[in-house]
Amino acid sequence: MTDTQQLLARLAQLDCAAICDADKTIRVMDCGIRPISKKPKMIGIAHTVRCREDFLSVIKGLEESQPGEVLIVDAGGSSTAVVGELFATEARRRGLVGIVVDGACRDTRTLQDMLDFSVYARHISPMAGTTTRVFATQKTVACGGVEVTPGEIVFGDIDGLLVLSHSELRRIIATAEEIQGKEEKALARMANGESLLDMLNFAEHYRSREDGRDSALRFKIT
Question: Over the range 151-160, which residues count as b (16 or more CB within 10 Å of their CB) and which as e?
């Protein structure tokens, strides 16, 4: 297993929230882009497309795509659909793990029934775009308010979508694993009747902040 495969396997055990808690500077797509399919969890490598109310270049992106990739479509937030059931089905057939559209999709009844493929979009519309204009593929694009460069890691779950460079993920994944592990322990102890406040340094932290002293809220559990 390659280094990248190992990283992605570890990432698959985490939630987006744990990654965000590990590093507040991680790129998070804005909350207007939401999961359409019933399989929101998605981890893959970005394959980028830029288009504007025309899906010819989305087809080009599909033609170029490789297994394990996520098709990232910068449609400029348009409400004209540039992805639907045919493109999603072809992407799944080619081994892609998902499609993210900063714009509109359609055929949502079919997309929602895809249990092994993830689709995220900003809008839903029955009106499709044209097929006459050529735009760039595999260039840095803006999607959900953040830059996405081909080859970067895209991670999505029901809470939202993250974009990480490989170096960012290597740097923070151990911290994210520790954070999620402590939260899981806290939930298990709370299920047995323990108070969350007893597991946090809340009182000490609150007094410190009242007095203007540096402090950080943290778990006391290990």
Answer: ebbbbbbeeb
CA-to-CA distance for 47 and 67, rounded, in angstroms?
11
The candidate with the shortest Cα–Cα distance to 106, out of 130, 129, 126, 77, is: 126
**DSSP-derived pairing of the beta strands 118-124 and 160-164:** unpaired
Of residues 61, 27, 55, 38, the one with CA closest to residue 142: 27
Each residue's pLDDT tens digit, 19-38: 999 999 999 999 999 999 99
Task: Say whether pLDDT at 209 is over 80.
Answer: yes
Taking domain 3-169, whether its CATH number is 3.50.30.40 is answered by: yes
Taking the C-alpha atoms of residue 144 and residue 149, their distance in angstroms, rounded to an integer, is 13
Q: What is the pTM of this model?
A: 0.95
**In the chain, where are the structural domains located?**
3-169, 170-210
Taking the chain, what is the end-to-end CA distance rounded to the nearest angstrom? 30
Phi, psi at 122, each rounded to 5° = -85, -35
CB 105 within 8 A of CB 114: no
Q: Given the structure tokens 């953040």, which residue do they identify?
A: 146
